[in-house]
Amino acid sequence: MDKLEQIKRDLYAQEPRRIKHIEGVAESAIEIKNRHFPQISDETALCAAYMHDFTKEYSKEQHMEIFSRYGISLDECELASEKLWHAKSAYALAKHVYSLTDDICDAVLYHTTGRADMAPLDKVIYLADYIEKNRTFVDCVDVRDTYAMLCEKREPTALDSAILYSLDLTISDLLESRRIIHRDTFEARNYLIKEGIQ
Ligand code: DGI
Ligand code: FE
Ligand code: FE
Fold first, then answer.
1. Count of H helices and E strands in the chain?
2. Which residue's CA is minimally distant from atom 6 of ligand 1?
3. Where does ligand 1 bind, in terms of residues with CB under 6 Å?
4. Residue of 79, 112, 182 best suited for mutating to test ligand 1, as the one with most atoms within 8 Å of CB
5. Angle subtended at Cα 180 by Cα 174 and Cα 186, rounded to the nearest 5 degrees
6. Contact status, residue 76 vs residue 160, Cβ threshold 8 Å
7. Among 64, 80, 89, 140, which residue has the fewest nearby CB atoms (within 10 Å)?
């Protein structure tokens, strides 16, 4: 059995509530990578998509067990923001259980915050996660429509612009709800601004 089949089998066996979302991310990831990075294989994009929220429903105890087993430490922001944990635990499983390549593990690790100078697969998964078709939140619909419009106009920076827009909306949302903003989220945004993306 190949790795993708193994991941899907284990994911479906968990009966995750978010399977529709994960399938939506897989579909969007294929579309986005075919448009911007056709050199990325379907298998690579799909492994990252199916892994990205693998541990989203895990309990605090399950997360702690994974972090201690694989020697993963949490920084101050991460300790205070439980929503950030699933990216780190899914990364640990991607690396140590499924032995996925570094590009896939990184895309899983940075799928929630982004990071400065995101790799092609990081960008594919970050945007696919935000705009997949089952998301109905107004900000997601807005980024989905904006990205579609930029692609329609053959804007060369469509992907980076859409990512920058989604980072801005995420940061605004975190500010409004008085939540901690991780430095990777800021750095992802600042990097794109410095690159001249609008
Ligand atoms: O797992 P998903 O719901 O599919 O999406 P996700 O992994 O992008 O998680 C989105 C949540 O993560 C959303 O509630 C905002 C939150 N988030 C993103 N960046 C940060 C953050 N939360 C904190 N506290 N700090 C961040 O920098
Ligand atoms: Fe997630
Ligand atoms: Fe997700």
1. 11, 0
2. 112
3. 21, 53, 56, 81, 83-84, 111-113, 129, 170, 174, 179-182, 185
4. 112
5. 75
6. no
7. 80
CA distance 151 to 149: 5
- Exposure class string for 21-54: b at 16+ Cβ within 10 A, else e: bbbbbbbbbbebbeebbeebeeebbbbbbbbbbb
- Domains delineated in the chain: 3-194 (1.10.3210.10)
Task: Look at residues 65, 69, 67, 117 and name the one whose alpha carbon lies nearest to residue 88.
Answer: 67
6-46 pLDDT per residue, tens: 999 999 999 888 999 999 999 999 999 999 999 999 999 99
pLDDT in tens, 92-116: 999 999 999 999 999 999 999 999 9
pTM: 0.98
For the chain, the 3-state helix, strand and coil shares in percent, each to the nearest 5, are 70, 0, 30
- Closest C-alpha to ligand 1, atom 11: 83
User: Which ligand 1 atom lies nearest to the CA of residue 185?
Assistant: 27
Instruction: Answer whether 174's CB lies under 8 Å from 181's CB.
Output: yes
Judge whether 7 and 50 are in contact, CB under 8 Å.
Answer: yes
